[in-house]
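Form 12-C: Joint structure prediction
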Amino acid sequence: MALTQAATWERELLISTRNTSLMLTAGEGEPLKFAYYGDRIEACERNRVHDAWIGLNKDAYPVFGTTCNFAHAMQVTHADGNMTLDLAVSDVSRESTERGEHVSILLKDRKYPFELTAHYNALYDEDIIESWIEVVHREKKPVVLYRFDSSYMPIRRGDVWVSHLHGAWTAETMLTSEPLNNGLLEIRNTDGARNAHYAHPELMFSLDGCPSENSGRVIGAVLCWSGNYSLRVDSDNSQVHHFFAGMCSEASYYKLAQGESFVTPKVAYTYSDRGLGGASRNFHRWARNGMVHGGDKQRDILLNSWEGVYLDVNEADMVQMMEDFAQMGGELFVMDDGWFGDKYPRKKDNTSLGDWVVDNNKLPQGINYLIEKAHENGIKFGIWIEPEATNCVSELMEKHPDWALQVDGRKVRYGRGGTQMLLDMTNPDVQDFVFGVVDDLLTQYPDIAYIKWDANVELFNYGSTYLPQDKQSHIYIDYHRGLEKVLQRIRAKYPDVVLQACGGGGGRAGYGVMPYYDEFWVSDNTDAVQRIYMQWGASYFYPSIAMAQHVSASPNHQTGRSVPLKFRFDVAMTGRLGMELQPKDMTAEELEFSKRAIADYKLIRPIVQLGEQYRLVSPYDKKGVASLMYVSSDTSQAVFFAYKMEHFTNMNVQRVRMDGLDADKTYKITELNVPLDKQPCHLNGKVFTGRMLMNTGIELALNSEYASRVFLLEAQQDYK
Ligand code: GLA
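Section 2 - Result
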């Protein structure tokens, strides 16, 4: 791709995708201005943006000290102590890429040898514009960065609402929507290591009042960073809400040496006039096209050992679980925590992390034997690791006590098990070790097909024995840069191994790392009812192919709730289906039902994992029912899910209207996952036009508590 450096450039820079446009005003020697973001406009309409006074004349990237008198995206202190920036456009380059266009705008400080490049990468088919910045300076001594947001966008005031995710361990990705008012709304997370339990660096602005699934204009923004972050919506008395997104700068000022470049993570923006659902589908497409590793490859159906045996991993149970799962039609077995440790075997969760060698007492014939058994049963084998962590009781800490984050002269604060510590990923030796954990496993056991990469401890001890004293404030940022380097090395060598991002449940669900992982564990909470809410929230930004969803035992181990096996399957089947229980505890009927459900999932897998998602009735709306569907890209097939969320006698469950179908096609409905002792419902085998299914909708027979339905819809050729 040739870089065409324009000697002169058009002052009104229009950056467009199929349906959206961003416009900036880049006058040479002037500050870069934001003019417009929204529905696609053509080049001839550029002046009209200003004529209609849509152009907001706000700085495109407000910096502290000179031009902006409101909140800012960047603040630095120069080598001589000056705290201000005054940036003017110096150059613009436009480069066409395979998927769109990359525009970079060079801004130079009028006084100091300090440069900032604002990048905009437009992805045409996805309707995504990625934005980030890069700074470099030639000052004699380091420049200190005190605030370094990736991006800024002014959002015109009106009846603007914001939707975002909040939660906690075992209750991740719960959705919240609120109208934007005066003052500051900040979404941030400062866990240090895993940053998706409590909040998510993603949001959607509904510009036309109360958020709606399929109408109204929506701007979505996603920050691609696994470390601490801050998304701020600052609403002052001007006409806009000021939106900033970037790495959290708290306790993280960054010393930048002469010539060193500082590149921020990117923020991906999308715009849709088809409501929240339209914006989500744009993000899903973008994710499947590269922001989730292997986003176009269908996922295996797996059994994970955790809730089945917990830490009591042993050869007999592993083999039996594989045999039972293979009988059900499963495709992959994952041996979770508990398989490792030599001098300190992993009996409880308070030892052994770091000692990634097999525990010969639990697994006398080793891992190769388990892999052989998996293959004999026609399934693949996967394994759990937590490579960034250690316990103070481990051979690793005996050999390398300086490799854990710790503060000189202070008592170590431990995490899980009262002994767990985080390794210092800023240290290249630790990065080599972490890479080596995966590399050694895959070299020794090349047939390992899947690795669950866990992260169960916060960044508690703010001290690195590797970073010099004057760069201790780099820990939060350099930890994640170190992690990313390791992940890049792993992917360069092992592009095909399936990696799951787990962070004590959903703590690592984020686009900072998803380009390296095939999926994330949504939550340690496998209760099907609560999962409906969590999976719904996650689906605002993440595609189903990336969401690991497991059928577990009843009563559920986290909530104690009992729900039918069918309901549990019907909920798990909206993402990457798996199971997480001990099959030998199931009845013959349950095993038979599971076998049929797994066979049914194989039928709908391409539609669920690669199709377009339409959310129909939200569980958050408390209508007694929740419903969603997936439609294949050619609209010839779809799969519909509905769940009874409340149960009273004489209850009126609303008719559900489908979406995303071809109005002119006719679709035959086949009910899936029908319980062994029940008949399919009244809709089974019936044929309807897409128009009728979408306009009139269907009556659901959801007559019992925790009733649920799954329908396959297939377009008919010559139906009259
Ligand atoms: C975390 C994960 C679980 C399981 C345990 C093992 O909590 O989220 O799925 O792997 O660790 O210790």
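Section 3 - Comments
The chain is about 20% helix and 30% strand. The two ends are 52 Å apart (CA to CA).
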